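User: quick one - fold this with S-adenosylmethionine bound?
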Amino acid sequence: MDATYNLSGGFKPTIKRFADLDGPDFFPTPPWATYALIDNEKFSGDIWESACGDGAMSRVLAETGRPVRSSDLHNRGFGEVGIDFLTAPHRADNIVTNPPYNSAEGFVVAGVEKARHKFALLLRLAFLEGANRANTIFSRNPPNRVWVFSERITFYPSGAVQKGTGTTAYAWFVWDKNSTGSELKWLKPGYRAKYLRLK
Ligand SMILES: C[S@@+](CC[C@H](N)C(=O)[O-])C[C@H]1O[C@@H](n2cnc3c(N)ncnc32)[C@H](O)[C@@H]1O
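Assistant: Sure. Structure tokens for the protein plus S-adenosylmethionine:
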């Protein structure tokens, strides 16, 4: 059976990323979602994909021509294994990733500290809300740009049959040491179709 269709045991007309709330949460990012970032944000220096999974995001980031370092806490068959981003002592010019759902807040705190230039996280748009985050992240260190996807991203567990469309809105949250203020921006529709051949 298609593992993405297990919500409450019934078949669904649409699917959503059923986050592995207590686990390592491995959902590769469709390439088009990373192209949307690198088409709109320029990077100087190296880029660290710090929760790289099977390299879905790293491979697109390499197209910037910048050196890309890839690591993950778990062995997904790609990059350096066993590096916990939350406690790693490493730094990088830029850090870009799609973090595990259950430690997104920790990734924000660690990434803002470890990135010299830009830190970009792919997160649910709903990450913007919540009293706790308002008191911690957004009042102290808000992102400089939030790029809202006008198209839905569908996340599938690695190897799952791909069908249906996503129901959750996502955005790129960018902290940029060379910017001040916070800007809300919209990604133009069309990335999904343009890069569909790459899945
Ligand atoms: C949602 S997946 C995204 C994978 C990849 N970034 C992508 O976009 O295709 C999250 C990844 O974070 C990894 N991970 C979980 N906790 C981590 C941690 N503390 N440090 C580094 N990686 C972690 C998981 O093993 C998983 O591969």
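One thing worth noting: Residues 3-7+24-198 form a domain with the Rossmann fold fold (CATH 3.40.50.150).
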